[in-house]
Amino acid sequence: MRKIEITKNESDQRLDRFLQKYLNNTTRSNIYKLIRKKVFKINGKRITEESYFLQENDVLEIFLAEDTIETLMKAFVPVIPEKIGLDIVYEDADILVLNKAKGVLTHPDQSEYKNTLATMVHFYLRDLCTPTFRPAPVHRLDKNTSGLVIFAKTYEALKSYNALMRERSIEKYYLCVVEGNLRKAGEVKGYLIKDEIQNKVRIVTHDSDEAKFCHSKYKPIEHFDRYTLVEVELLTGRSHQIRASMQLIGHPIVGDLKYGGSRVFDLNNQLLHSYKMVIGDQTFVAESAEIKDFLASIKS
Fold first, then answer.
1. Catalytic annotation on 142?
2. What pLDDT score does 76 carry?
3. Closest Cα to residue 70, out of 139, 2, 140?
4. Which pLDDT does position 85 carry in this prediction?
5. What DSSP letter does each residue of the chain carry, written as one string?
6. For the domain bounded by 2-71, which CATH number is listed?
7. Domain with CATH 3.30.2350.10 in the chain
8. What is the pLDDT of residue 253?
9. CATH of 170-299, one of 3.40.50.880, 3.30.530.20, 3.30.230.10, 3.30.2350.10
10. What is the CATH number of domain 88-166?
11. How far apart (Å, rounded) are the C-alpha atoms in residues 267 and 40?
């Protein structure tokens, strides 16, 4: 038999979802079978409802032999990345704010598992990783977009910051270098449609079942001979939204070959950087060395 005391990181979730994470080496159907067999007690009472919501300080008891429980669990072993490489902008008990480098995935995928921002964070915060919770990103950036990413260090913080994202209470500002002389501030409102095969989006004026509303505001910050430094406020967080918006207004981002940009010098990725986030009275800022170096090179 094993006894588990539910903490804040496990509370406010259904029993079956908690068990799927805790007993992570078995199937969902087997977990439901164990619930029906009444092998679980909560606060001393047999539980047969998988939809029970766990509360902080609940005591969950598993009435199985310890070696059986061990076979149903796969221990969390943090992946050791080749380098940690975390550029920490801010950290407290709830969140970790990072300046992500270009070329780094936020999440693991089929092409890369070891050297992603998430695996680096899990190694850095390995003492906070449990069978049912690991620090998680509140949002993501494209692989070749650099800048600010927030990781929640607790389940409570993850719920709170996810809610702020849904309510659009987190202000997000980007810097990009676009082609041409952009003179006036403006905005792009439309409906974004994604082509999954090409991993590319387009913005149209009409709504449809597969479209998602998108909204960005932009303003020129500094003009150069053939380029403009632009600040973009992202009011909806859609995949490739800024890149497609800049292409739509005729000023594609420098280096963004997928969305009409030209290759300049040895750039083969977009000069796009998430440089500022405002959450209530907190402001986080991160500089882009790549944009700074590019602007220095075209000035000289």
1. yes
2. 67
3. 2
4. 77
5. -EEEE--TTT-SSBHHHHHHHHTTTS-HHHHHHHHHTT-EEETTEE---TTPBP-TT-EEEE-S-HHHHHHT---------S-----EEEE-SSEEEEEEPTT--SS--SS-SSSSHHHHHHHHTGGG--SS---EESS---TT-EEEEEEESSHHHHHHHHHHHHTT-EEEEEEEEEES---S-EEEEEEEEEETTTTEEEEESS--TT-EEEEEEEEEEEE-SSEEEEEEEESS--TTHHHHHHHHTT-PBTT-GGGTPPP-TT--S--EEEEEEEETTEEEE---HHHHHHHHHHH-
6. 3.10.290.10
7. 88-166, 170-299
8. 97
9. 3.30.2350.10
10. 3.30.2350.10
11. 57
Which pLDDT tens digit goes with each residue over 188-224?
999 999 998 888 999 999 999 899 999 999 999 999 9
pLDDT attached to residue 115: 82
- Which among 12, 127, 142, 281 is annotated as catalytic? 142
